[in-house]
Write a structure and sequence with these properties.
283 residues; five-stranded mixed sheet; DNA-binding
Length: 283
DNA sequence: ACAATTACCTGTATGC
DNA sequence: TGCATACAGGTAATTG
């Protein structure tokens, strides 16, 4: 499940190889993954255009291409992988052999390399929009602050929590309040902060807010350093797995002993999401 | 305005 | 062995 650390890792992978490369042709095998604009305009745009620098906002990849931005939402199982060419399986253009199943878009690049978008469950979407209309035409316009930006302070987090009576985990998952945190990191951040996911946000005190703010940055930074978490099928922009799954304290460990107190971790359903926490260490 | 719920998807695991 | 069901969960749309 690509969350902020995974999308940032993909962004860094692509930043190393994509800028300056020209697009030769495009294969669109599943038009419904294109949310904007229409299929004809989308397919007609790319040939001859040059990739710019990849950016990120929350869980969204923002790939500059000529005067537009390709906004990619990977959702659950989406993958964006750069395949160097023309060696190996590269260089065959749109008719390349060995393309994995669920390949929905393939950009064939000058020199034989390719960029492929795959998504087993087809939740993922791409938007091709003018640079100045990203916020207007894509969900990026509805996102809350970036948790790793300097202006995301404990005070700012306090304002987000204040007066809201939903469980604190539900707020962490709400992309319009804080951008980039998904189910894995919400559980890990709350464990690191020692706060129960069930607590009403309004009842999180000032001292705990500082701890929660610290935990969010600590966990997200460390997860980026380890190139993301691979529990199912996440891979970075070169097709490599992440390493943070070895650091998980609670996610996916319901019933297993807490690494801090040794007691059994609890698994429950919160807002339709699987949730793991330690009832002893998180209050 | 806010909060809760549902639809969208398919591979994997489990129960009978 | 085979079939049905539950589950994984990010986001948009819908309902309350």
């Amino acid at each position: 499940m690509p969350e902020l650390p995974e999308v940032e890792t993909i962004r860094r992978s692509l930043e190393a190889v994509l800028p300056g490369i020209e697009i030769a042709e495009l294969g669109l095998f599943r038009p419904e993954v294109v949310a904007w604009p229409g299929m004809e305009e989308f397919t007609g745009f790319f040939p001859g255009k040059v990739w710019g620098r990849p950016g990120r906002r929350g869980k969204y990849l923002l790939l500059e291409v000529a005067d537009r931005v390709l906004v990619v939402s990977l959702r659950m199982t989406g993958q964006l992988v750069f395949l160097p060419g023309p060696a190996g399986d590269g260089g065959d253009g749109l008719w390349a052999h060995g393309l994995p199943p669920h390949t929905h878009i393939l950009w064939c690049l000058a020199g034989g390399a390719r960029l492929r978008f795959t998504d087993q469950r087809r939740f993922g979407r791409v938007y091709l929009v003018p640079r100045e209309r990203v916020e207007e035409l894509t969900p990026v316009g509805k996102l809350g602050p970036e948790p790793l930006d300097p202006d995301f302070t404990p005070q700012r987090l306090g304002q987000i929590l204040a007066g809201r009576h939903r469980p604190v985990k539900a707020l962490l998952l709400d992309q319009s309040l804080v951008a980039g945190i998904g189910n894995i990191y919400a559980d890990e951040i709350l464990f690191a902060a020692g706060i129960s996911p069930l607590r009403s946000a309004a009842e999180v005190g000032p001292e705990e807010t500082v701890r929660l703010h610290w935990a969010a940055r600590e966990i997200l930074d460390e997860a980026i350093a380890r190139r993301g978490t691979t529990v199912r099928n996440y891979q970075d922009g070169h097709g490599q797995a992440g390493g943070f799954q070895e650091c998980l304290a609670v996610y996916g460990r319901g019933g297993e002993p807490c690494r801090r107190c040794g007691g059994p971790l609890r698994h429950l359903r919160l807002g339709g999401r699987g949730t793991c926490y330690c009832p002893c260490c998180q209050t």
